[in-house]
Amino acid sequence: MQITDARVFVGGPGKNYVTLKILTDAGVYGLGDATLNNRETLPAAYLRDYLIPNLIGMDPRNSEDIWQFFYRGAYFRRGPIAMAALGAIDMALWDIKAKLAGLPLYQLFGGKSREGAMVYAHATGADLDDLMDSIAWYVEQGYQAVRVQCGIPGMPSASYAVPEHKGARRHYITDYAGIRPKLEIWETDRYMRFMPDALAEIRARFGPRLHILHDVHHRLLPREAAEFAKAVEPVRLFWMEDPTPAEDQDALRLVRQHSTTPIAIGEVFNAIWDCNRLIEDELIDFIRVAATYAGGITPVKRIVDLAGLHHVRTGFHGAPSHSPICMAAHAHLNAWAPNFGIQEYLVLGTPECDALFPSEHRMENGMVLVSDAPGLGVDFDETEAARYSYEPGSHPVVRLPDGTMWNY
Ligand code: GCO
Ligand code: MG
């Protein structure tokens, strides 16, 4: 059996998805997601110029050897661009394998460990009242877990993932049109004085049962993160995410020593080598890798197994950065993973997105119910895809009030 062709599509409804389709001489095809948020043309070029010409003629069933060929075979390894491209190949090969077996992918991992996988939604508000309304809306929809982000009083501009104006909250996505980024001004002092009390008010309003998550988005210094984690302990967060930038992993040791607030990290990780020490030293509670950015299902399964040895649960990244193909890969991993924790999930379900990626994965009462169709259980409509093309975008950049560059 041979791979005969592979094609890359860039574009989508309101979002550039990078979709890979691998074709075989057996008539079965596989789909993968190589979307690297706001850098979409780069994994597409890596696929078209280097990976696909090598892929043609390979036996698609040898997904492990193909992964090793592209990983070990590249002298300059890793990094988000290469790993997103490799991640798409790996997903597509698992899709093919499961279709050949006539089974939903989770069966190849070991079957279902649960009926539904709990997800968390993004509630966001320009101020605390606005955020309370947003949380209430998600609770009414049946969500059991909500990530909460709030505008900070006196902050010169909207901070991470919050709208500039009240009421714009439900489908707020942190992307902006054009190559030139929007500027956000960040003030740690205002955040530290406001956010712990705001989280306490949210807990008081919604009671002990709601799972409350919060994303610090890499904004704090290690000592500040430790202070924050300690201050929010009474709120009993489900997790505090990315308290500090991921480069200095010893920072998490400091945070850990000072508090029992659960720590989640990993959405920017590309390999098991970015998180093996954090997992083995039990410095984190949730690992947030994504099947796209971390190089596919093959390496993510290894990370999940390592995490399981150290009481670390999964909380895969699921911002709108990923297409429904990556989210389908996560749905199968989540159905199987013995150490499943939670899945980030944004309601993408616009009619346009559903038409481009038809699927039977379902959302009910804040849980994803995995599809039983053979393979990943998601398709890609090429006629629909022809309606879209690449639109340049950028993440915002962040500066302190004096102009110093800070972390987005
Ligand atoms: C999250 C993330 C995202 C990122 C985005 C970057 O937890 O969902 O922090 O919102 O900012 O995916 O491309
Ligand atoms: Mg995050």
UniProtKB/TrEMBL annotation:
In terms of Pfam families, this protein maps to: MR_MLE_C (PF13378), MR_MLE_N (PF02746)
Q: Which InterPro entries match?
A: D-mannonate_dehydratase-like, DgoD-like, Enolase_C-like, Mandel_Rmase/mucon_lact_enz_CS, Mandelate_racemase_C, Mandelate_racemase_N_dom
**PANTHER family associated with the record:** D-GALACTONATE DEHYDRATASE-RELATED, STARVATION-SENSING PROTEIN RSPA
Record-annotated Mandelate racemase/muconate lactonizing enzyme C-terminal domain positions:
128-262
NCBIfam families listed in its UniProt record: ManoateDhtManD, PRK15072.1
Q: What is this protein called?
A: D-galactonate dehydratase family protein
Give the family per the record: Belongs to the mandelate racemase/muconate lactonizing enzyme family. GalD subfamily.
